[in-house]
Amino acid sequence: MNHALLDGDILLYRVGYTTNEETEEVAQFRMEELIQRILDTIKATQVSIFLSCGRADSFRAKLNPDYKAHRKQEKPVHYAFLRQYLIDVWGAVEGIGEEADDLIGIAQNTLTNTTACTIDKDILYGVKGDKFDFVKEKVFHTTEEDARHFFYKQLLMGDRVDNIFGITGVGTAKSDKILDGLWGESHEKYWNKVVDTYRGYLQTEWADQYEEWTDVEEERMIKMITLSGQQLKIRSEIGEIWQPPHGLLGD
Q1: If we measure between CA atoms, which residue out of 30, 95, 22, 85 comes closest to residue 58?
Q2: What's the rounded Cα separation, in Å, for the pair 200 and 119?
Q3: What is the spatial distance between Cα 133 and Cα 233, in angstroms, rounded to a whole number?
Q4: Which of 155, 224, 228, 250 is the most exposed place for a label (fewest CB within 10 A)?
Q5: How far apart are CA 242 and CA 221, in angstroms?
């Protein structure tokens, strides 16, 4: 038995953009074809499709009003039609204050024999469980240690596309170097490394704002890192809001 967890947002845009010049019937056929190909490849006996809530309704936008605020991606011509088709025919679940990623993350944490089917890196690498990248045709497993390492890499980098704060100039290669040797270690060790790295960066970045680094600057820094983590962390439980392992001030 294999329960396929499909990211409906990805399906809508991938099928939608390739059928802008086609009829609704063709768009529906292409959607059916893609879903069935995914299910056949992983030999799924059950399927759940998840759709995100609107950006403004996301808990992340409540934490940070600028979250994804500058995304101007135009929806495909048949977006509304295909979304309703997924709901009516495939029983797609719409998030309430949550994105499709969160619904998949919660499902992978609470259900058994699941495979998350997406091309989104946050689910593929940031959530424990079996995965299927249906573009690369790659089936693999993400361990808890893999997901932990990926999250703290993201915490160093932030996500400028989504307006999530990170360290300027730190990308995949630099974050790997910073966290080198920590794979498999505790959240506490990762957190301490991330905080030390941010402190070194911000002591230079904020140098004209203070005479010496005090608890005020430390608390400001921790709050900023925590906010980034709360936006980056894919939920594994309903209503989860991520918190640093040591609490607000890292002590």
Answers
A1: 95
A2: 34
A3: 20
A4: 224
A5: 16
The sheet carrying 129-133 orders its strands as 93-94, 46-51, 3-7, 114-118, 129-133, 138-142
CB 225 within 8 A of CB 155: yes
- Farthest-apart Cα atoms in the chain, separation: 66
Q: What is the pLDDT along the chain (251 residues), one digit of tens a residue?
A: 899 999 999 999 999 999 999 999 999 999 999 999 999 999 999 999 999 999 999 999 999 999 998 877 789 999 999 999 999 999 999 999 999 999 999 999 999 999 999 999 999 999 999 999 999 999 999 999 999 999 999 999 999 999 999 999 999 999 999 999 999 999 999 999 999 999 999 999 998 888 899 999 999 999 999 999 999 999 999 999 999 997 544 44
Beta bridge partners of 117: 6, 132
Yes or no: say if 162 and 231 are a contact pair by the CB < 8 Å rule.
yes
Amino acid at 221: M
3-state secondary structure of 116: strand
Residue type, 26: V
pTM of the model: 0.94
